[in-house]
Every structure is written in C-alpha cells, then in structure tokens.
Amino acid sequence: MKRSVLLGLFVTASMMASTSFAADKPTSLCEANLQTINNAKTQYQSSPDLNARVSASVQKAQDLKNQGKIDDCLAETQRTILDIQNASGAAKK
C-alpha cells in the first residue's frame, strides 16, 4: 500500500515536471515536489539517517528555489523522492 502511494506521488511529480506543465509556472514544480516530500514524512521519519538526508535535501532545494535555480531545485527534490521511494521499498522486503 505504501509503495503504491509513493509510486503515485512520484508519477504525479514526474508528470508535473514534464515540459508541457513547466511552460507557465516552473517554481510551482519545485513546490509540488517539496509538498510530495512533506506528504511522505511518515515513510522516512522512522529512519534517522534518511530523515537527516531528507531534511538537508529539502533545505538545499528551498535555498536553490530562493536563488532562482529552479532546474537544480527540481533535480534535488526528484532525487530525494527517489531516495524515499527506494528506502520504503527496501524496508518492505
């Protein structure tokens, strides 16, 4: 169940990051990924190591967004979403 939810969130984030969605509001894509990460908190809070990495990544992504480096923010948040997805998948096995 958790894996399906994360996969759905990742697919949604990936679709939002496509060029057809990115034409008008690129900063909202970074925001959407940050919200996806925030929504997945229950998936990574049980692991102190992953929690620390996600927190650092979110801070870095917010700093990049504030600097206007939207592409870098998107890359950072998508890596973090994949890390969360991989960690929750590994915990299931």
From TrEMBL:
Keywords: Signal. Residues 1-22 form the signal peptide. It comes from the Bacteria. This is Uncharacterized protein.
